[in-house]
Amino acid sequence: MTKPLISVKDLTIRFNTDEGLVTAVEKVSFDIAQGEILGLVGESGSGKSVTAKALMLLNPDNAVYGPESSITLNLGDEQVDVLSLGPKERKVIRGGAVSMIFQEPMASFAPAISIGDQMVEQLLIHSDMNKASATELSIEMLARVGIPDPAQRFSQFAFEFSGGMRQRAMIAMALSTKPKLLIADEPTTALDVTIQAQVIDLMKDLVNEYHMAILFITHDLGVIAQTVDRMVVMYLGTLIEEGEVRNVLRKPGHPYTQGLMNALPRLDDLDTPLTAIKGDIPSPLDRPTGCVFNTRCPVTLGEDCETRVPIYTSMGEGHQVACHLVEKTGAPA
Amino acid sequence: MTETLIETNDLSVHFPLQGKLFGPKPVVRAVEGVTVHIERGSFYGLVGESGSGKTTFGRALLRAVPITRGTAKYTDADVSYDLTTLEGDDMTEYRKRAQLIFQDPYAALSPRMTVRDIIAEPLEVMGLTQSRDETDERVREIARKCRINLEHLRRFPHAFSGGQRQRISIARALVSEPHFIVADESVAALDVSIQADVLNLLKGIQKDMGLTFLFISHDLSVVAHVCDHVAVMYLGRLVETAPTRELFAAPRHPYTKALLSAIPSLDPDDAGNVVKLEGEIPSPINPPPGCKFQTRCRYAIDICRVEEPKLDHSGFDHDVACHRWKELADDPQASVVEHD
Amino acid sequence: MTDSVNTDTANIDKNVDQKAKEAYFTASQGQLIWARFKKQTAAMVGATVLLILILWGIFAPFLTPYDPSIAGRNENYVNGAPNIPKFWDENGFSFRPFIYSFERSRSIKTNFRWITKIDREARRYVVLFPQGDKYTLFGMNFETHLFGVDKGKIHIFGTDGTGKDIYSRTFHSINTSLAVGTIGVFIAFVLALIIGGISGYYGGWIDSVLQMITDAVRTIPAIPLFMAIAAFIPDHLSSEARFFVISIILGFIGWPTLARRVRTHLLVERNQEYVLAAQLCGASAGHIIRKHLLPSFTSYIIVDLIISFPYMVLSETALSFIGLGLKDPVNSLGVMLQNVTSADVLLNYQWYFIPVIFFIILVLAFVFVGDGLRDAADPYGDTKK
Question: Do the interacting molecules here have an ipTM over 0.90?
Fold first, then answer.
């Protein structure tokens, strides 16, 4: 079996704050194969952004990585241990083999430098191109992502682009270095739904064309359903379910995933009332013991769930759920 | 028989911009010629994307922005106000009856006030209570209704999550016992699991206190579940309005159809009949002539580029502003939109 | 594919201090700022130093041995070098610090310059709490000073051209400069609050007009302006009155910068959604200003005030230095520096510059505290997730 493109094992990230060491991510493990689109679903406090940033070592200085944590990038013959990269070696994960696009494209572009200059700068850092070829490639990429008049847009500034176009420009910039892995952190959340559809289509086309993998982070299950091959679900820093997107969405195993599906307003079912997951997402300062979801779980087994952290149980076909109920009964609630 | 609480006719809100020293000043037509009837006790949805003018419309109804043209009337059991000329004591009275719930739970609460003070502020400003004890009692009562832990009343906003802050925001809007609430994207910033909770809370409170809601949102799925009537706006204009079931079962305006089909389905195998809208939303300062949607509409014909369509009755309580709605509805071929 | 999550017991986040958590939840903005401020070493050091210097200045009459004005001068030791107390010399060790006696003489042989001959055999011992020149502190008269010497006078920092003790003058002058700074900052602040406040809150043409005035005042060059005003200050004014006039003038020149800051803060805060929420309840302008706008920028304004202080002090120094500001017997750094420009001083009496060190420390302390406060007050407390 070919090695996965990126392999995350037991990733644990805590932050040093005034109130103590706060856990943001706890023993998270997943792999992304070459050319695969993996969806990472989570709400606020799930640790999804922290995890994504860890792949590029973008977390702030007060982040403490657990000793068993490891992130391995497999680039052909080379194997890169991301967490041990020194400051000078990080180029490869930042814009090189790994690129990232963010939720708020306005905030991601420098306001006083033209879009073109920023794209060229990235290319000059990560490749041997000279300025002329970098400019040519950048304009090509802008055209590829569907921006009309790319040569003219090249010299424009971020504020002259609309939201959807900024996001496209962001994708163009991220892809110009031909990364193996694109991390998309809520790329469509800030976009209108009609623009969102366009951007998702674009990303899928590009995946096919460039054979790159995408880590698609979002809280929007509809977008996940239409975009990704496999998905993992995070809650309060822990992975609680993973599998093929069809399996997870059609037969969610974990009570949290089920709760999410039930809470979603669905256009194909206007009669079912919206059932909320009771309670609130606990603050990271208030992380529950045992299974992190036990405080809100409608089918909690009581003491067992409050004291022991569940391990993955397989539901077949690569579908795994971290839930004591599934472990005991072999079936979801 | 329910009566109309809020009625607007050809309502317009224009914002002047800094133009050149000489010559015409450009104007942003944020809301243009909107006519709606909001029944008392209804949960009225207003949808649109960015630039649609939905937020401005909601704020105009609360007189947070001035109304440039048209009429707007508020008619309650005992009073009636002309919202375009409201001022002085009438304005004060109206403010007691009409409140706003903001979108951003992080910006809507003053970080320097305790939760108790935030919720109590309307009572104190409007002089609705006689003593501090009475204020405290009313704050506690509304906090309970909104499921805010009473112990949290002495905390500051930075201690709370988005969903909790939104509940505080709601409590603040409700404490003066209003009759009309404008909920401006009130669940947009919330996580899905919390969103359902807040929506259920709003519906519960509506029944409990007999309120009328104007629910502004860009999220059609949410609107479909909680609203009984929906109006769709595009670039400041009203393009379609109908009872919820009707709108979602038989949308008539090409924009509404596109909007509905753009919502990603939860079934991975259902790519749906997706109408891909090309292009971007035009600028509200320099909108295209004729129908504002014609630049992106696959059915646009000559008349669409010249003349703005008026709201037409297409059925019981179902209005559309499109030159071709009839033929698009009659012709089943035209209704089934295919991806090119 | 993936490793299993192992069954740890009690995933209790012992790492999180529960008390700290609750304190964080119920902390007001002020408390949060103070907590963040305490963490910065430079700021805390600055604050401590500032406190020490201020106290030193207030209690200067007690802490220094002599009256800093002409009245307390030592005619026998004009332009004298500093007397550093020692504990030990070739004649033996002493618990009490001592200095030497001296004799001064001059003659035509020395070009009439005073020559000081030190007598290392005759010691003069430092005494604690001697009676000395009278002074008034907090409305009461005292005579006791912290230290003195049993015979003659001790001049730790030396003396100046008329025999005044530089050590005493330094600390009295800190007091003066701080007082001038306080009054100046206070006046500037009141003006800035009114003008900047009206400008920022009402906006529109009021704002445009007030901004033009503000900019105009700001561009007036200070020195010529002072020269003009100083020319009008009657000479017969007592030194205290002169002191107040100078302070007031400084305040009137200093308000534009502060006003601009106040206006900016207001413009930002005015558009916050919670202000709109209050307005939608029909809150009056007064209520909004009191409950929302003022508290919101109190922390910023305090920072601005603290940072304005050193500017006031330095302005006053510059003025007095060129002779337009305070004059004898009122002490200030500027007054003390009035005589340093002659070659004589630069070559022979370098101890005249010792007070400069103290002023640098004072200004730096203000700057560190101000910076620390600004960093602490800068809200990441408004973080989104």
Answer: no
